[in-house]
UniProtKB/TrEMBL annotation:
Record EC number: 7.1.1.-
Protein name (database record): NADH-quinone oxidoreductase subunit D
One Pfam family here: Complex1_49kDa
Membrane topology according to the record: Peripheral membrane protein
Example of a GO MF term: oxidoreductase activity
Function in brief: NDH-1 shuttles electrons from NADH, via FMN and iron-sulfur (Fe-S) centers, to quinones in the respiratory chain. The immediate electron acceptor for the enzyme in this species is believed to be a menaquinone. Couples the redox reaction to proton translocation (for every two electrons transferred, four hydrogen ions are translocated across the cytoplasmic membrane), and thus conserves the redox energy in a proton gradient.
InterPro entries documented for this protein: NADH_Q_OxRdtase_suD, NDH1_su_D/H, NiFe-Hase_large
Top-level division of the source organism's lineage: Bacteria
Gene that produces this protein: nuoD
UniProt subunit comment: NDH-1 is composed of 14 different subunits. Subunits NuoB, C, D, E, F, and G constitute the peripheral sector of the complex.
Family statement: Belongs to the complex I 49 kDa subunit family.
């Protein structure tokens, strides 16, 4: 189960009037292992040092021995809550290098899957975030809607979390016959139940007091640390790749880039809540307008991009995900580098938490929405 509470204080050391505590790690076989070394003066945080690498799997090196069809699905195991969107970025890179034209039907399907993935990710985050701050009920409410999305994914993709559905040239197979009906049912329920999130969480005075003014990140600092996604947009940074560099059919649908200017934990929370509404808005525009035709372009069985360097990027639930590939003209990449949003967002944690109380760390760290396998790779 993904939760910010995966990191637990376990040891303390007293050094020269300051207290150094270790938050995490647990057993290295556990996913999402993060180790923070925190220096305290009383209850005030003076310094935070993240120690990474507990779940490092050499994914980028591994991809150099995989074909251009195979390496795509390794990224499902990085940010496993944005697997569709990660796969899409990899497919884009191969399509860009080989100049493959993707059928319109496949483009629409990809966007629908991406936005359902974004909502599912934010739903899990909202439930876990509320639970970490002491509110247990919203976790079940959030998973009620998220479960509808995972069932939709399972019907079409055969999996509920790490979907291997997107291929160079389109999608692996066509939509399930019940896809449209179930998506409409989800949209209807989501729109009627969203007020429950507002009553239980957003408008809760205790929740607001725990979030407002906590973990403040200015616009200038967000840019300096390379933050993207809801973390940056909560500080007023215009950075939504879907708007700046539209891909697939994002330039053909109407939606707003959600921005908040306070830069605190509550602002980052509101960005994600409002983004779910914008994702529903995109889905509503596309669900009755899925074009007929092929769901996959005709491609060769063995893909050999020309010699050169190629970079593509997309907007995941956590921010900008980029794929950089160096090709030597062979059947496998010569070099691959992934630009994951979590790494840059985590780098700002020490700056955001410095001077705040140790009790506020959960709100600050929770609103970064960290998925550690995305950072370690």
């Amino acid at each position: 189960m993904y939760s910010q509470t995966e990191v637990i204080c376990d040891t303390t050391t007293d050094t020269g009037g300051e207290l150094v505590i270790n938050v995490g790690p647990q057993h290295p076989a556990t996913h999402g292992v993060l180790h923070l070394v925190i220096t305290l003066e009383g209850e005030t945080i003076r310094k935070i040092e993240p120690h990474l690498g507990y779940i490092h799997r050499s994914i980028e090196k591994m991809c150099e021995s995989l074909s251009y069809r195979q390496f795509i699905y390794v990224t499902s195991r990085m940010d496993y809550l944005s697997s569709h969107i990660n796969n899409l970025c990899c497919a884009h890179n191969t399509e860009k290098s080989l100049q493959i034209e993707v059928p319109q039907r496949a483009k629409v399907i990809r966007v629908l899957m991406s936005e359902l993935t974004r909502i599912a990710s934010h739903e899990l985050w909202l439930g876990a975030m509320a639970m970490d701050l002491g509110a247990f009920t919203p976790f079940f409410y959030a998973f009620r809607e998220r479960e509808m999305i995972t069932e939709i994914m399972e019907d079409t993709c055969g999996a509920r979390l790490t979907m291997n559905y997107i291929v160079p040239g389109g999608v692996m197979y066509d939509l399930h016959p019940d896809f449209v009906t179930k998506v409409k049912a989800f949209v209807k329920q989501f729109k009627t139940k969203v007020t429950e999130y507002e009553d239980l969480v957003t408008n809760n005075v205790i929740f607001q007091n725990r979030m407002k003014g906590v973990g403040v990140l200015s616009k200038e600092d967000a840019i300096s640390y390379g933050c993207t996604g809801p973390v940056a947009r909560g500080s007023g940074v215009h950075c939504d790749i879907r708007k700046i560099y539209p891909y697939e059919v994002y330039d053909a649908v109407e939606f707003d880039e959600v921005l908040e200017t306070a830069g605190d934990s509550f602002a980052r929370y509101m960005v994600r809540v409002r983004e779910m509404n914008q994702s529903v808005r995109i889905i509503e525009q596309l669900i009755d307008n899925i074009p007929d035709g092929d769901f996959q372009a005709k491609t060769k069985a063995v893909l050999k991009p020309p010699k050169g360097e190629f970079y593509t990027r997309v907007e995941t639930a956590r921010g900008e995900f980029g794929v950089y590939i160096v090709s030597e003209g062979g059947t496998t990449p010569y070099r691959i580098k992934f630009r994951s949003p979590g790494f840059s967002n985590l780098s700002a944690l020490g700056h955001m938490a410095k001077g705040s109380k140790i009790g506020d760390l959960m709100a600050t760290m929770g609103t970064l929405d960290l998925v550690i396998p995305d950072i370690d790779r």
